Amino acid sequence: MEFQDVVRRRKMVRNYATTPVDPEVVDLALHNAVRAPNAGFSQGWAFLVLDTPEDVRTFWEATAEDVDQPDEWLRGMMRAPVVILPCSSKAAYLRRYAEDDKGWTDQDERRWPKPFWDMDTAMASLLILQTATDHGLASCFIGIPPEREPAVRAAFGIPEDFDPVGVVTIGHHAEDAGASGSPSRRRRRDMDELVHGGRWGGRWGHGTSPSA
């Protein structure tokens, strides 16, 4: 698939078939994920892969109200055979930038204008989503409810120095899946509303947008 097709076709899918996912595609998605930009080549991320029915059910039991009587959203999501938890490590970034080649002499978090550990892991997550799309699979990125995170940590032994930044589900599209989610109810905003040239409110534009 051409790159522009991947960008255009990628969407958040919340209704899956139970068809298994080729493990080689999951492996490729993870190899692509660790090629994402990361400050100082800190590589302060880790990816917890849940790809057995038992582990996937344990995840939903830890995060949802009632997996035995799910609502429509949960029923569709629970069918995804692969769940990946991208996790970031702030500690790894703070340690990396206290090394000699970076020049900082402490690990003060206030030096960081933004939480790059979370941002970099989010970019890695996007590469997982794009890889799934490139191979004709459905995927979605969601968050873990804060009150449910301790249960997820306990269920899967996530270390204290790693924090889940979200959840990626991967599977095949459900046969009866139609348009759903916010994009089916909300218009895509025009580029003129989103992109500013020279100063805020300035018009930017060079040629026409890609048609693919």
Describe the structure.
It is a single chain. Helix 1 (3-9) crosses helix 6 and helix 3 (53-63) runs antiparallel to helix 7 (149-156). Strands 1, 2, 3, 4 and 5 form a 5-stranded antiparallel sheet that branches. This protein has a single domain (3-186), classed as NADH Oxidase (3-Layer(aba) Sandwich), CATH 3.40.109. The model has no long low-confidence stretch (mean pLDDT 92). It has 212 residues and is an alpha+beta fold. It is built from 8 helices and 5 strands, in the order ααβααβααβαββα. The protein is 35% helix and 12% strand. The longest helix has 19 residues, at 116-134.
Mean pLDDT: 92
Per CATH, the architecture is 3-Layer(aba) Sandwich
- How would you sum up the major sheet? 5 strands, antiparallel
How many domains? The number is: 1
Order of helices and strands: HHEHHEHHEHEEH
Distinct helical segment count: 8
CA radius of gyration is: 19 Å
Strand fraction band?
Answer: 5-15%
Poorly predicted segments: none
Structural class call reads alpha+beta
Assembly context of the chains: single chain
CATH topology term? NADH Oxidase
Which CATH top level class fits?
Answer: Alpha Beta
Proportion of helical residues: 25-40%
Number of E-type strands: 5
Distance between the ends:
11 Å
**Superfamily at the CATH H level?**
NADH Oxidase
Shape: globular
